[in-house]
Specification:
- By secondary structure, the chain is mainly β.
- The protein folds into 2 domains: 532 residues, TonB-dependent receptor, beta-barrel domain (Maltoporin, Chain A); 233 residues, no CATH class.
- Helices cover 6% and strands 41% of the residues.
- The chain has a 22-stranded antiparallel beta barrel.
- A hairpin with a 2-residue loop joins strand 18 and strand 19.
- The longest helix has 8 residues.
């Protein structure tokens, strides 16, 4: 006996499958199990919009990887998984489905009908029979997280023998991608066993090896930073005896004494441009950090899978499935170092955070080169303070890198285990049951190195290094004060100046200011950095029981069937951070032994550490370890109502309770009417919900970073505070569809056409009430003198009386008419119930198959047309930041779901003849405009907002406006796949040319020059695969 699993309904595969089936292979409709209902055996004939992708057909498309498959779906929105440091380094290799483009958190992933992690890269694809995608809300069936739909991966029921799969993809500029897998199985009349293992590898592809990343500042200013190691310095007079906090001062005089001269530049225009920089002013030599990054990072995915299914007796089956996987990215490269947005100075902010004393052995050369030694005030100079600073930029940093790389990498390793076991069967009364337990366990290790700026200050003073330990002679000042022993007794000096690097290493551009021997030693650099490593463990266990059967009630179309059940789920998150510098044990820049503790700036004893416990790092925040849990209990039921022979209705409801006194009740009705043998209509209406996750902690403060459009794309601090009044978000989802299937125009041909309308409306979504980017743009909203529009190059002026100005950490105080978007270090926003979304549109599927030339020729198209995509109003602190705008056809840079294309689709032509199969596919994604550069009325912003600041190389001529990525481009790519069945050897050979025309991804004004969530950065690739069966 082979009992079909519950949690599904019966539907017609040939009505819903978007994949191609040859005409001569489908003389009649065959019902198969699909996702979406609790009742087994319900003859709904495709009442729900489900797409079915079987494994054999995916082989004819070149056996796409998890990332390639997710990106190819017309119903997908922006998809994670590419190497994209700016979208979250930890998401590299982590493929999360984003059905309908409303956020991956609203798509539920299942493995054989059981909940599984959102990172679907861990699914053992070699063991899959098919993948089913329910394009409808399904909270009533599966619980929370299914507003956008469900992706259900279904493994093979049985397998006899051994099969080996291998593939290699040739990619220009890298060592290629390759994979190997093996699956074996055996069984008898009552038991089947399957074992499988897989390995997939992606090879590194440097950013500089793609033309869309290697662009000049005038073309794409997004990856250029004003915060670099080539800085401007102010000479300082005598240090104050007792540093004091002076909120009215913006030049750090309370820490370092009064400036006694103008800006001393560590570079000239010529020396700046010699290392690839762009000269903007006397204290800004912009640098391009993208050459240090990867377009593809080295990534390995390992998977193990085992499954046993056995018949206990004639009325009971038992199964157990176990999966283990690891996604490993050992080198996810970012910038050589991060910029300073906070530091050891008492006054706070991003400016004047460091002081280079005159006894620093590298200060004399700087004073000589800048001519300061000739100033009559030179003798009064205590040292120099950089206006802004980044320790490693133009010269790179290879201390922590692989050979041939010059940046500081992060390490990401995600381990996942899944265990599902249960009994399913049928009582003598005819009532069926499915009783199961599911356990998921994931461990994510991730680090993101950053510098501790108080240690930089110590090293500037001559007291750097792990072995430095000398007495402090001045307790009134932070850090070690003992000039006589500086640079001795195991202590090292740090050189902050342009003399410390020989070249821009990626392009081999020599630094004219380099002084051999002035480099900072690796041992000192290692002491300045902290890996900021954390290990997050998440586990959840689910027990559920579902029963179904028939009622005594019979309608004209048949007997009314029912299903009912209950579910209990426990989730626990544990964050392990053992490093005392990262886990919050040091809440301030300076250790508590220095006398610095968190205080409110109004406190007379305040000495530079705010109550939000910013920690010792210059850019990132700390991460106090925590442990959270959540219990969820639900009961649910469903009725199947065969009203007439050709009319079917279904009604379902679910009640769920969560820890913390939260609960939700949802319902759904659906139906299908077969008007004729060829034509039917279907529809559904239901409510959905999403509860706050177990990791949501009211009052928690998270210090992160953000790219700020108004500041020229520069990265600054972004602090998020979790609100205490969070409620479950809600949604309404409805759809209607039309299905036509018939013979084609010629004998033996088949035609199918399906169109579905969908409408999803969410309320009180869990997320940011407003993005940090929106807050900054609202406050810095005044055009500078001589401009009629608000520029995005950092020169926009602050509205110091704005209701949200208190959420900005300025570099000093906010001065009306003076403070610009270059003069802030951090923005604070809230996490809670924020704006909702509304999306609506059409899914279109059509297939035409016919015999041709002794074979089978099939054409198919699968497309999604989005008609609406809007956000409701964005309100923070009672201020309306955004009244609610149309997001369709825009990049949506500040929102979580990101780019929403009006059209996405695929067209396929397939020809099969004997042992040969030929497939040509074309993918189309309509381009999106960059909403940052368009007004509410749809007009483009003025040229001032698109003009990067600075001088064109070798001149004093300013740059003109850059339109790169502003209007968006359509993406059209064609692939060819050939499959040969080597019957004699019981093997299959696959060969593919992907992106035949070698199209580059559409331009996007982002750091990598394209949108990694949409585009393909590889260009034309060649792939071969071999499958051998034994």
């Amino acid at each position: 006996m082979r009992l079909k699993e519950l949690y599904r309904c019966i539907a017609c595969a040939s009505l819903v499958a978007p994949t191609l089936v040859f005409a001569q292979q489908q003389p009649e409709i065959e019902e198969v199990v699909v996702t979406g209902s609790l009742i087994r055996g319900t003859p709904v004939d495709a009442a729900l919009p489900v797409e079915v992708y079987n494994a054999e057909d995916l082989k004819l498309s070149g056996s796409p990887s998890a990332l390639e498959f997710a990106k190819s779906l017309s119903i997908s929105g922006a998809t994670t998984g590419e190497s994209h440091y700016f979208g979250g380094a930890g998401l590299t290799g982590s493929v999360s489905y984003n059905l309908r483009g409303i956020g991956s958190d609203k798509t539920l992933s299942l493995f054989n009908g059981r909940r599984v992690t959102q990172n679907t890269s861990v699914i053992p694809s070699i063991a899959l029979a098919r993948t089913e995608i329910l394009k409808d809300g399904a909270a009533v069936t599966y619980g929370a997280d299914a507003t956008g739909g469900v992706v259900n991966f279904i493994s093979r029921d049985s397998f006899d023998g051994v099969e080996i799969q291998s593939s290699y993809k040739a990619i220009d500029g890298s060592d290629g991608d390759y994979s190997f897998g093996i699956i074996g199985g055996f069984g008898g009349p009552t038991t089947d066993v399957i074992l499988a293992a897989q390995w997939e590898h992606r090879s590194r592809l440097d950013a500089k090896d793609r033309p869309f990343t290697d662009l000049s500042y005038g073309e794409n200013p997004a990856p250029w930073s004003t915060l670099t190691n080539l800085a401007g310095y102010l000479p300082r007079g005598p240090l104050p005896a007792n540093p004091v906090y002076n909120p009215a001062s913006s030049n750090g005089a309370g820490d370092w004494g009064n400036p006694i001269g103008g800006v001393l530049s560590d570079f000239t225009q010529d020396s700046c441009e010699a290392v690839g920089g762009v000269y903007r002013d006397s204290f800004t030599c912009l640098y391009n950090y993208i050459p240090y990054y990867n377009v593809v990072s080295d990534n390995d995915i390992y998977r193990l899978y085992g499954q046993v299914k056995t018949e206990v007796n004639d009325r009971m089956d038992f199964y157990v499935r176990a999966a283990y996987s690891m996604v490993d990215t050992p080198y996810q490269y970012g910038s050589p170092s991060q910029p300073v947005i906070r530091g050891p100075a008492i006054h706070g902010g991003a400016t004047y955070q460091l002081h280079v004393p005159m006894n620093n052995p590298y200060a004399a050369e700087f004073a000589q080169r800048t001519g300061w030694v000739n100033s009559p005030l030179f003798g009064l100079t205590s040292g120099f303070t950089p206006i802004t600073y980044r320790a490693f930029a133009h010269g790179g940093l290879d201390t922590f890198a692989e050979d041939g790389k010059y940046s500081t990498p992060s390490k990401i390793r995600n381990k996942f285990a899944h265990l599902a076991t249960g009994f399913e069967g049928e009582f003598e009364s005819g009532i069926t049951y499915d009783i199961a337990a599911t356990y998921n366990h994931s461990i994510l290790y991730a680090d993101s190195p950053d510098m501790m700026l108080y240690r930089v200050q110590e090293a500037l003073n001559g007291f750097g290094g792990a072995n430095c330990n000398v007495p402090d002679l001045d307790p009134n000042r932070f850090g070690t004060q003992n000039p006589a022993l500086a640079g001795s007794a195991g202590c090292s000096w740090y050189n902050p100046f342009a003399t410390n690097f020989a070249q821009q290493p990626v392009y081999g551009l020599a630094n004219p200011n380099y002084v051999p021997g002035s480099e900072n030693p690796d041992e000192l650099i290692e002491w300045l950095f902290n890996p900021r490593a954390a290990e997050d463990t998440n586990w959840n266990v689910t027990f559920d029981a579902v029963f179904s059967g028939e009622t005594p009630l019979e309608l004209p179309g048949g007997i009314v069937a029912w299903a009912a059940g209950a579910q209990w789920r426990k989730t626990e998150n544990t964050e392990a951070v053992t490093d005392p510098l990262y886990n919050g044990s040091q809440p301030c820049q300076w250790p508590e032994t220095e006398g610095q503790v968190p205080r409110d700036p109004t406190d007379p004893l305040y000495n530079g550490c705010t109550p939000d416990r910013p920690g010792p790092f210059q850019f990132f925040g700390t991460n106090p370890a925590d442990k959270t849990w959540q219990d969820q209990t639900s009961v649910f039921g469903e009725l199947s109502l065969p009203v007439l022979d050709n009319v079917y209705l279904s009604a379902a409801a679910r009640y769920e309770e969560f820890s913390g006194g939260l609960d939700s009740t949802v319902y759904k009705v659906s139906g299908q009417w077969s008007i004729t043998d060829n034509m039917s209509v279907r529809g559904s209406y239901g409510t959905n919900y999403q509860a706050p996750g177990a990791g949501v902690i009211p009052g928690e403060v998270t210090n992160g970073t953000n790219s700020f459009t108004i500041a020229g794309g520069n990265w600054r601090g972004a602090q998020t505070v979790t609100r205490s009044d969070i409620q479950p978000e809600e949604a309404t989802v409805w759809s209607s569809g039309f299905i036509w299937q018939s013979e084609g125009l010629t004998a033996g041909s088949d035609f199918r056409f399906i169109i579905d309308y969908f409408n999803i409306e969410t309320e009180n979504e869990l997320g940011l009430l407003a993005s940090a980017n929106q807050v900054a743009s609202a406050v810095f909203s005044i055009p500078p003198a001589g401009s009629t529009t608000v520029p995005t190059n950092g020169s926009a002026l602050a509205d110091c009386s704005h209701p949200l100005a208190g959420r900005i950490v300025f570099n000093g105080s906010c001065v009306q008419g003076v403070t610009t978007a270059n003069d802030f270090a951090q923005v604070r926003t809230d996490y809670g119930n924020g704006p909702g979304q509304l999306t609506a549109g059409f899914d279109i599927q059509t297939t035409y198959g016919m015999p041709a030339f002794s074979g089978d020729l099939t054409f198919s198209a699968n497309a999604t047309k989005v008609n609406k995509f809007r956000y409701t109003e964005t309100v923070l602190d009672g201020y309306q930041i955004d009244p609610g705008a149309n997001r369709l056809g825009f990049l949506n840079f500040a929102t979580i779901a990101n780019a929403i294309s009006e059209w996405r689709g695929n067209i396929t032509a397939n020809y099969a003849q004997g042992d040969h199969n030929f497939r040509l596919t074309a993918q189309y994604i309509k381009g999106v405009k960059d909403d940052r550069y368009f007004n509410a009325d749809g007009s483009r912003v003025g040229d001032a907002a698109l003009t990067p600041a600075g001088r064109q190389p070798g001149t004093t001529t300013p740059f003109g406006p850059s339109l790169y990525g502003v209007y968006g481009e359509d993406w059209i790519s064609m692939d060819f796949h050939y499959t040969l069945d080597l019957v004699r050897w019981d093997a299959t050979l696959n060969a593919s040319i992907v992106n035949i025309a070698d199209e580059m991804p559409p331009e996007s004004r982002q750091e990598l020059g394209y949108d990694p969530r949409i585009g393909n950065p590889l260009g034309r690739t060649f792939e071969v695969g071999l499958t051998k069966r034994f």
